[in-house]
């Protein structure tokens, strides 16, 4: 794997955290089968209670493009059902591509 990471900061609609986590349990293995690696996922305890931050390791920036979603979508029935359902749960999603700093372990 490269040292390129994708941070997804997701602000959910109020009361949708449980439903979001259930959908992601289906989606994560599908994305990992295409080369993404989930480093961790966190939800806030203090602050915006409807926020989740995911950190993914990706092979390169091209893995973030919608092509990978299109590649899986339609091929796997569970993914085809789970992915569009996220649109009803998410209010705002901010994606950032990152590289480790020189002092990072």
Descriptive report:
The chain has 105 residues and is an alpha+beta fold. The chain has three helices and four strands. It has a four-stranded antiparallel beta sheet with strand order 2-3-1-4, covered by helices on one side. β2 and β3 form a beta hairpin. The chain is flat, with a radius of gyration of 14 Å.
Secondary structure elements and their pairing?
Layout: E1 4-12, H1 17-33, E2 37-43, E3 51-58, H2 66-72, H3 77-85, E4 90-99
Antiparallel strand pairs: 1-3, 1-4, 2-3
Can you tag this structure with a few keywords?
alpha+beta; flat; 4 strands
Q: TL;DR of this structure?
A:
It is built from 3 helices and 4 strands; from the N terminus they run βαββααβ.
- The count of strands amounts to 4
* Structural class computed from helices and strand pairing: alpha+beta
Helix/strand order, N-terminal first: EHEEHHE
Report how far apart the termini are: 16 Å
Radius of gyration: 14 Å
Overall geometry: flat
Number of helices: 3
Uncertain residue segments: none
**Oligomeric state:** single chain
